[in-house]
Amino acid sequence: MEIRVGTAAAAAAAMLFALLLSPAAAAETTCSGIVPMRSRSEVISIEEFGAVGDGRTLNTWSFRKAIYRIQHLRRQGGTLLHVPRGVWLTGNFNLTSHMTLFLARGAVIKATQDTEKWPLAEPLPSYGRGRERPGGRYASFIQGYGLVDVIVTGENGTIDGQGGVWWNMWNQRTLKFTRPHLLEFLHSTYIHISNVILKNSPFWNIHPVYSSNVVIRSVTVLAPHDSPNTDGIDPDSCSNVCIEDCFISTGDDLVAVKSGWDEYGIAYGRPCSDIIIRRVTGSSPFSGIAIGSEASGGVENILVENINIYSTGIGIHIKTNTGRGGFIRNVTISQVYMNRVGKGLRIAGDVGDHPDENFNLNALPKVDGVTIRNVWGVEVQQPGSIEGIKASPFTRICLSNVRLWGVGGRKEMWQCGAVSGTAVGVQPWPCAELTTTSTVFCNG
């Protein structure tokens, strides 16, 4: 069946927009209709291309041959590449359009640890350089560029980035370029990722960037809590993205919404918009749900709901900085449950570093229209802080029914500044900057 991209894109966008407008409808619906699971007319096995799943044989050429065959001998309805039980060691490889990468139960696609031969890629234009080192970056382990209609799924098979060697280089300051992501899609649309386990990514785990109509559901993401910068899922300058029913335990933010870095993100100018994040459970020494700090292209129309966070540094973290520019607006976060969290809520205008000395100090971000409601936390060391930028105060910040209890019932104080908005039913009571006199946008 041929996909009619324009028609399908409009339908997907309309569905997501309806869910964003109606939290009640969103609670009763899944996002599978945005990028539905589909069967393929042809099934081939990686073993047909000489791959050996013994955990020792390097299968890079086999994966690349199989995908080359799918790309150039295109079957109507697409092709499923079956990866059976076994440990399939490989270097990085690219996916192609109209394909499904299917990991059977017990299948492990494992990245080689031969970093000396790892290919390089150009820096993302909205970042201007590698995120952690100047210059280019190492190519992602499994990646796609300019693709349409790609599914990564299975029977909870595993994609293992064997990130330890990369983490050691970072910690020892011997890293030459920015580490690779585990799974990345650039300039792609109709991407569906489900029922797989991702573990030990060298850097961020799942990174859709400059893409649209992306569904990530029923995915498990794992990395040690001391692994550096192993974000779980980072939609970056994307539109129409749904993340749901996932478990994430990593060394950095569980989910982080981004849109470029300082002057490069401002110049590229692609927002991250129309994002749904729901029914996510996880733990991290950093943030549960994060927006920013790289949000220079703008972030808008975000719905986050039914989140369970435990043993985490910050529950909800909206972060930006002078020089970022851009905007963060129309964000709704609700039904969040926290346990053993350092800080329940932080909205901050002084977070994040800069790519170089060329950022514009007058590029001030705008944070406006953030509603956080129905949040319950126990063993929260500090309830929260909302500290805007004096030259660009945060506006229309609403807290409604937010109850964050300290260890042993202790009540700590909030910290606030350069912010205006409303607080209703908040315990402990936040700050004088949030009044109780206007609830119009708070109840919207």
UniProtKB/TrEMBL annotation:
Signal peptide: 1-26
Gene3D superfamilies: Single-stranded right-handed beta-helix, Pectin lyase-like
UniProt KW keywords: Glycosidase, Hydrolase, Signal
GO molecular function: polygalacturonase activity
Pfam family, any one: Glyco_hydro_28
GO terms under biological process: carbohydrate metabolic process
SMART domains according to UniProt: PbH1 (SM00710)
Family, per entry: Belongs to the glycosyl hydrolase 28 family.
Protein's name according to its UniProt entry: Polygalacturonase
Natural source organism: Platanthera zijinensis
